[in-house]
Design brief:
The chain is built from five helices and no strands. By secondary structure, the chain is an all-alpha fold. The protein is globular. The protein has one domain.
Length: 81
Amino acid sequence: MKRFDEVMQSIPEKDEHKRSREYKKLSPKMKDAIDYIFAIMDAKPSDFLNTFEKTIKSSAKKFGVKEKDLTNYFEREMLGI
């Protein structure tokens, strides 16, 4: 039988991406755009990879940021730069 804290550690937090160093460096607009992308990912996790580029475009347009900046953010997060 597992202890409660062991079970809680295995459950990912909803806003875990907000703890990263890269996220904390972002402007408020970029943070809103990233939060929007993660909200869509949480809503439809099975369909997210198929629509990632479209989600990036819609988020960039909605929040007035560059698609390239959003893509660069995800690349930096994935590579741990």
